[in-house]
Amino acid sequence: MKFLRRSGSLYIILLIVFLAGCSSAPKPQAELVLAKDSIERAKVSKAYDIAPKNINAAETKLAQAEDLMDQEENRKAKILLEQAQKDAETAIAKVNKERAKTSLEELKTSMAELEKKLQSETK
Amino acid sequence: MTNNKRKRQLQDHFKGVTMNIKKSYLTALLITSVFITGCATQETKPEALQDLISKQSEMQEDERIASNAGIELNELRELVNNANKAWQDGEQEEFEQQMYLASRQSEIAESKGLAAHYRDQIEEMSEQRQQLLLQAKNAELERTRSRLEETQSELTTTSQQLEDLSEIAESAEQQAIALADELTNVKAEMTNRGMVLTLQDILFETAESDLKSGSERTIDKVTEFLNNNPDVVVTVEGFTDSVGSEAYNMGLSKQRAESVKSALTDQGIDDKRLTTKAMGEAFPVATNDTPAGRQENRRVELVLKQDKQQQ
Fold it and tell me: What domain range includes position A91?
């Protein structure tokens, strides 16, 4: 028991030393999943047409982050993945806004036409 | 036991060290925070952060965004606070990261708010459009109905007119037909102008407007008919064959109509009941190439109508 306890604390110390020395941070797996998911949804909503800058930035950062993770540069990777996710979400929001705007404009045009038509009919 | 004793000694020792560390750490922290606060009040915030903060409060004021993107605005506030804190703590990399995320978040909140605002407008306008279409449909229905009413009233007028027409025929038809049966040179015919009695050529010679002798019987019969039907008025229409010029025939047809009229007034028919009309050679009922045909074309037609004023 004593031996175990001692070797346990030794193991923990070793582990801490190992982690501190070898890798500054764990792999940002959650951020990777979130970024990929957002980018996928942005692609599905055809963000390339409306917010190409945002979706391209997101994809570039994702690729860079994956490279960095291979090199165990996890802290930098995490930063890029957080940005990539926000970029993709921005693209989605812009797409939704533009779609709504276009629909509204189309509706306005058709309303104007309808009103004009009705006016000419009542004359 | 020796181990434990040593351990306790070590622990005590460490406790003292940690206490010392804690004390000095606290002092350092106090100094740092004083320093930071001092800095913060003197040093102005970075322009990008200021812009973001003012943008955030603008959006907070914007009803379209505030009411539609509350969650997004909350996240923005959090990111801006993070950025602010990172700047105060002098953590440049963290500051830049939070600033980047906050900038994107401000775009997200704005887009989300406007999108919802546009969709609300779409919904509202769709309702208006629906209303308008309904109105248009009703107006169309109304027009159709009024057209129908118009047609119906026209129909009523027409059938009234037809009734008027048949009224003449009802009261006079039998007598007119009887008259035509009796006289070989008189034909009775129901036309769309009303009842027409055709007095044929026998009454006139070519180029003559005077009545031939022997037409008295015809005039007598017509007089009798008109006396029996006092509410019938007559249009006396004169026709010629094509011998002679058109203008000449027009005059001749007028004279023939006038002759018949004066023959009837001579018999005591009120001349208000008789109007004359020159039709000339333009309405032949037979060929003008044969004497028999020309004879048929030289004629006077009596168009019989109910006197409207007497109705």
Answer: 26-121
